[in-house]
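Q: Predict the assembly, please.
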Amino acid sequence: MRAKSNDSFLSRLKAGLSKTRELLFMNVEAVARGIGPVDEKVLSDLEEALILADAGAPLAQEYVEALRGKWRRGELPDTEALRSALRGMIAKTLAPRMVPLEVRPPYPYVVLVIGVNGVGKTTTIGKIAHWLKEEGHPVLLAAGDTFRAAAIEQLKIWAERTGADFVQHKERSDSSAVAFDAVRAGKARGAHAVLIDTAGRLHTKSHLMEEMRKVVRVIGKEMPGAPHEVLLVLDATSGRNAIAQAKTFQEVTGVTGLVLTKLDGTAKGGVVLSVTREIGAPVRFIGVGESVDDLRPFDASAFAEALF
Amino acid sequence: MFENLTEKFQDVLKTLRGQGRISEGNIEAAVREVRLALLEADVNYNVVKDFTAAVKEKALGAEVLASLTPDQHFIKIVHAELAKMVGGEAQDLDLARRPPVPLMLVGLQGSGKTTTCGKLALLLQKRKRRPFLVPADVYRPAAIEQLKVLGGQIGIPVYDSDPGADPVDICREAVRHADLNGFDTVLLDTAGRLHIDEELMEELRRIKAAVDPGDILLVADAMTGQDAVNVARTFHQKLSLSGVILTKMDGDARGGAALSIRAVTGAPIKFVGVGEKLDALEPFHPDRMASRILGMGDILTLVEKAQETIDEKQARDLERKIRKSQFTLEDFREQLLRVRKMGSMEDLLGMIPGMGGKLKEMKGAAPDEKELKRTIAIIDSMTLEERRNAKLLNGSRRKRIALGSGTSVQEVNRLLKNFQQAEEMIKRLSKAGGRKAGRNLPFFG
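A: Predicted assembly structure:
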């Protein structure tokens, strides 16, 4: 990830979210025109914009109510003040959730990656592996998605690309056995981090969630205290369902970190505001593109700034 | 959150109850709840705005039908409008032309194109067509491999795409190959891409120009949020979509994206993906989707599944018995077997919004296979007379049954209690006179 500078990353995040901004301030006409007075229309436009960013109606209402209060007290003289107040509120909400993933002894630091289908778990693992390698950590990848066709192949390619160690079983084999072997291999081979992929599963499928619980249990048996990180991957394009996903995974396996992927489209990822209300886990990374450099530690104010 | 919505909705509707006519005054709160319900279901904000305006207009001043209370009437209007907007009649693929007919599957990353491709091929094969699968995703690692594995699982040939080739050439060549080898339908699995990626969108346009597809289907995730409109609109503008396939409908997402996509593209939703197995692709039912978006649950599908497992004659017999309140342990056994036949309860219950978070509680509610077997064993250990008249079952008979079925007296007692409850429920139902209710009701032990 050292290949590209911070500036370029920020600019890509902004480019990714720029459509959001356009959209937001296209709706909030007064703001689009430049600095102007705040009125009821501006406020209700802002509520609409927040809903369009997937923040959800109740939360949008709450933010706007707070802003309306400030406005009535004369604290928001113009739209610029309104904008920075909203930005501040969002950054403040998310700031405590800005805790980077830290791979630390006792090694191997075991990271289990979970989520519903198609959110980008395998790709995220590839990118995290790349990032950890750059930090100088030996990494081992475990092909725990034994269900989806060619998922093992996909992760293997990532292992080759990043020079990570790789543990796999046959397709359709028990994923907890893969996890078990991976932790054991990680210990034997001196890996600092073991990243375990899992098959995507809808949180409503209780037998698949039970399987997840078993994976966690088996990992803990092989290495007490592991998995050290249970990373839930959420798709920024998803709507309110992300909340149900987070709550259920939290209940079943516990979640110690979040990754928000696909922020390079026009999706706003506003749902992360609601998700972090429901579960206490910090946001570790955000994904803003397909290239290996496009995963970065989460930055609350950059996120808020890019959004508004 | 979802659980509360339906309740809240019901509360607001109560205010409409007892009013002879729906008026501006009494409808405001109800419309507001509809708005919130739709937003929580991820229907796009602007689509919601148009929709609620239309509903309000329809509902205002509407004479309430004699058979309905105003709240029922209002819901009926909302539901009908929603079903209309989400897509009238179900529509099929456009295959009536000279074969081979190419079908293009397009969409964002992770929406489920490759899996859907496999499912669609299997569905077409069942319809006596000769499908050919073409992996045209040269970007995602192992995407080509994935389709090959899927093709192998269902026994459908897959084009041997060269990962180094231009996807446009792959598609053109594959269609030619299909023509020469007697395949009549060619499924083109394109790479997932962002709608704002000009270069890759251009690639899709070139594929379209090269193969002249019968259908261009947008594969969209039912969990998509507000952004669904931007995605669908752009894909439609660039490619002029002929249909949509909504995936991951087996979760508890309310699927408001369906409404948004339909509203901005006008393209019909042709299929829905309802599971991980390759036969889990179904035609789209607008009315069910409407219920689901409103948070009323996909009850119809549930009912239909129940119906599939009950044969007509049995159903009529049961109905007669219910009418006469002659429900016996024999019937109870039948019901239990039926529940078993209906398959995984959790899949069924998963269709109900709000159930996702309740899986734990549900584990208790859904009868597990073992318990079902034991219950049936208990009933099997009874004499015919006992089964027909549960009142005969005194202490010593219970002991005998427990011994005979390898269970305990406590378990026999529990079963009898459950049976009593079912009996009660049936009596109540038969009083309510529900012909339908009796038929579709599986009794959970």
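Strands of chain A lie at 109-114, 139-142, 165-167, 193-196, 229-235, 257-261, 283-287, 295-297. The mean pLDDT of chain A is 89.
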